[in-house]
Amino acid sequence: MSAPAATVHATDGSIQLVLATDTEIKQAIGRFCETQLIGREGESSVRRMETPRRTLIRRVSRKKEERLAKIRRTNLSTLMDQTLTFTEGSTAPHEGHIPNSIDQEDSIWGHSFSSSNFETSNYNLFEESPLLNILPSMKAQLRQWSIKHNITHSALKDLLKVISQTFPDANLPKDPRTLLRTPRSISNKVSYIAGGEFFHFGILGHLTRIVSYGLKDFKLPNILLKKNLPNLLTLKIGIDGVPISRSSKKQFWPILGSLDQGKRSEVFLISLFYGDTKPKVVEEFLNPFVSEMSDIEANGILVNEKQYNVRIRVLVADTPARAYLKCVKGHSGYYSCEKCQRKGKRTTALIFPIRAAAQNRTDSDFNSLLYVGSSKSKSHQMSLSPLCALDVGMVTQVPLDYMHLCCLGIMKRMLMLWYEGRVPHRIGGRNVEIVSERLRSFSKFIPSEFSRKCRGLDDLHFWKATEFRTFILYVGPLALKNVLSKEKYEHFMLFHTAMYIFLSSAADSSEWVDFGEQLLHKFVNDAAMLYYEDILVYNMHSLLHLHMDVRNFGPLDKISAFQFENYMQVIKRRLRTNHSHLAQTVNRFKEEEGYVSHTDPFVATGVGKISSKHGDNCFLTSSGKICVIQSVNNDTNSCSVRYFNQIHPLKNYPCNSSVFGINIVNELSRVSDSSLKSLVRKCILLPHKKRFLCIPLCSSSMSDVN
User: Fold this and answer.
1) Is 260 helix (H, G, I), strand (E, B) or coil?
2) Which of 180, 212, 298, 423 is deepest in the core (most CB within 10 A)?
3) Rounded CA gap, 196 and 274, in Å?
């Protein structure tokens, strides 16, 4: 079949894309000419006009071929797919459609034919370029394309030059800064503070834009429910530093935000500091943010004629950043614990020996500077934090971040101890190989939503936070089986179980949170006996307070830094040259204002990807059974599955593992049909001897890709 021709048909302000093959066009012209001539002069006229009619057709066909060739060179079909939409209720004629009336023939050309203007109308039609109808949207498409793919100005300038030379009527700007609406100058808005450069983007504009997209339901913590504020929107704020490269001291310190009720899982940039170190004066760094947030707390925001109250739900940061923002002692101070008044002990490092529970800190005492001691060494607070001016609890609403505490802290320390630690605790080269082989064999069973698969212990120094999390929650119990001693293995399982509780829906149950608290207390108490006392550092002690944040906010992923840590790389990717780093970054984000990405970050909804491949083929069903997908039929919303007949709880577990859906499974049934709606939870299915270990995914463990 001949290649289709494309024309644009504009009626009543709407745009329609009409496709027809070369053969159909020739047939339509022939039938049209014949119909018009017969109707005018009869059959005898047709015989007398036979040669002129063929000449006319040849002329029309020649013009048609010329225009079709030009259209094909511009790849118009691809461009129109992106820039034109059919009018509501209209349908594009498919390739096999042959018009059977004069009106339908006219629609092929996007032009009205008549016996009086047939010749003139067709020639005028062919002289018009279809590109003229899509030029207004070409600028917008080029702008969005360059923003989405982070195209440099030099590359975009060359592209604009090529397009302008090929299509002089395109009327595109020569300078990419005009197309992208790059600010002319930001120097008058950059502040020089605290040993570096600072730019404040603001909060209100981001909130107005995100709320206008629509809102979703979000379960508020009891801390905020007690405020009894109508139409309450809550923010998750993240603050941390990120080096711009490994070969420089230069670093960014962004203030990031995320609206809990926003439909789009989106992080936005509030402020950005650039310098050799962190901001030297915390007041100068935080004052623009605190000032604007105080005004929003007092007056709310008005969007679409609806008034909203806004409050900060949590402020997330790692341990050094929290100490800096709260103006308290760092993790090496005697009174550095943020949750209780326990005093540390100095050995080879500062540790917190096992003793009776100390008195917990409170928000009111913190705001009243009651934790300033009689001397510097006895103080927890150094001064009053600027954040105290906001309606946020400096103890309860500044939680411990489990990404740094548990993944990059406790789990990394334990693995390093087993891999290359002291002789009594090092597992040895042979066992290292066994664990590494197991981890590599698990890689193909990791779900596709996980951006990082398992790596061996020989790459341990390069593991990312998500890899440590995967080890804690899913692969660790099998990877360490029969490698550690019975006592140390059971000790690790305490940590695994507590973290699984705190990261799953069980965190919404006060009974399970109490049980998780007991497990972590036993884990910390036994650590000194199984290993050495110096292991009881700040991170190990902080595990004793992790349950407080779970009680206040639910599963730990709701208060983790994973979301913000991923965005740090987005900021770094905006840098293109070796100078004017802050100006570059500000310009890139200003160019993106108004740009809406059509590929949002992955949000864990439903059960994730369903497939017959390893990693995406194991699910819990609504009836409580564990099935393996054999095939999927999306047309009928059904699948073929096989169920496990033998299900047993995992041994050496601190409780009945079946309560969480964690089981040893074996013996598949025959294939049967099932509905996709019956799949309620995705599972990781790991090989274990001749059987499998099935572990359901935590509710939000697929949502972060750091």
Assistant:
1) coil
2) 180
3) 6
Task: Report residue 17 as tokens.
Answer: 């894309």
Can you read off the two tokens belonging to residue 391? 């309606």
Closest CA to 68 of 159, 130, 143: 130
Residue positions counted in the chain: 706
CA–CA gap between residue 629 and residue 673 (Å, rounded) = 10
Alpha-helical (H) ranges within 42-152 are: 43-48, 50-73, 76-83, 102-109, 118-127, 135-148
Query: Using an 8 Å Cβ cutoff, are 134 and 71 in contact?
Result: no
Q: What is the mean pLDDT of residues 592-596?
A: 69
Q: Which residues contact 202 (CB under 8 A, 6 or more apart)?
A: 270, 292
> What is the SS3 string spanning 474-533?
HHHHHHCCCCCCHHHHHHHHHHHHHHHHHHCHHHHCHHHHHHHHHHHHHHHHHHHHHCCH
Amino acid at 127: E
| Number of Cβ atoms within 10 Å of the Cβ of 191 | 14
The overall longest dimension of the chain from CA atoms, in Å, is 118
pTM (2 d.p.): 0.78
Distance CA 702, CA 704 (A): 6
Structure tokens at 154: 């030099």
**Residue 92: how many CA atoms within 13 Å on its side-chain side?**
20
Cβ 390 vs Cβ 297: under 8 Å: yes
- Residue 240 CB contacts under 8 Å (≥ 6 apart), including other chains: 253, 254, 317, 318, 321, 561, 564, 565, 568
Q: Which helix (H) or strand (E) holds 326?
A: helix 319-326
* 152 pLDDT higher than 60: yes
Work out the number of other CB atoms within 10 angstroms of the CB of residue 290.
17
Q: Please, what's the b/e burial string for 620-645 (b: 16 or more CB within 10 A of its CB; e: otherwise)? A: bbeeebbbbbeebeeeeebbbbbbbe
Neighbours of 569 (CB within 10 A): 10
Q: Which two tokens stand for residue 429?
A: 């080269």
Burial of 421: CB neighbours in 10 Å, binned 0-12, 13-18, 19+ = middle
Question: How far is the first Cα of the chain from the last one, in angstroms, to the nearest whole number?
Answer: 49
At how many degrees (to 10) do helices 22-41 and 102-109 cross? 130
Provide CB contacts within 8 A for 55, sequence distance 6+.
none
CB 386 within 8 A of CB 325: no
R_g of the chain, CA atoms, integer Å: 33
Q: What is the pLDDT of residues 307-338, one digit of tens each?
A: 999 999 999 999 999 999 999 999 989 999 99
Q: pLDDT by residue (tens digit) across 355-410? A: 888 899 999 999 999 998 777 768 899 999 999 999 999 999 999 999 999 999 99
153-166 and 135-148 helices, crossing angle to 10°: 160
What is the per-residue DSSP string for 14-49?
EEEEEEEEHHHHHHHHHHHHHHHHHHHH-HHHHHHT
Give the span between the Cα atoms of 243 and 653, in whole angstroms: 41
693 pLDDT tier (thresholds 50, 70, 90) = very high
Give the tens place of pLDDT for each residue, 189-222. 888 987 899 999 999 999 999 999 899 999 999 8
- Where do the DSSP E strands lie in 250-381? 251-259, 268-275, 301-303, 306-316, 345-346, 350-351
How many Å apart are CA 265 and CA 142, to the nearest integer? 25
